[in-house]
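Database export, one record per block. Field names are fixed; values are copied verbatim from the stored entry.
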Amino acid sequence: MERAVYKVLPHRKLQAGAACHAPDETRKVAVDSPAVEVMTDLRQVPAATIGPQATLAQANQAMIARGVRLLLVTAPGGEVLGLITARDTMGEKPIKMLQQNGGRHGDLLVKDLMVSRDQMDVIAYADVLRAEVGHVIATLKDFGRQHAMVVDRDPLTGDEAIRGIFSATQVGRQLGVSLQTFEVAHTFAEIEAALAA
């Protein structure tokens, strides 16, 4: 209810020794926990995005600034054109492209190395709601990537939108397994070994 007059809230000076709150510790899960518990929900966390004309250096800087290893590549209107990961920008992909086409690393753009929309495997949000963390691990392993996109549909328009992201690193963190590598096969071997112990 809108009021005509609002009172000033009670206030005081900050006490000496006050610090900033740290984010809550990552919620621990098990392989049989609901899959949605390890999904980054883009309704709660803004997506990290970049345009297709950005340089690889700009993409890397954007990932560092956001503390992520994946950027959604979007058109000016917000349409998702693809995605690019740290593995795509710093792995073998740029080197191979330069060997094949020539040029300089600084000339490579996001659009040159991104995974295009038509190559992105996605998971329906409705399926995620019925799945467990173990299903996510199996799916990421099958995809052979560090990330998987989750989509849902607008019930009125039928338009599809990316609702969430699964990250092998995040899944490992929540399972209590340290993941230090981009290699998906090695990553899941680590998770499986840690869970078997």
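Remark 1: The first helix runs from residue 56 to 66.
Remark 2: Residues 35-196 form a domain with the CBS-domain fold (CATH 3.10.580.10).
End of record.
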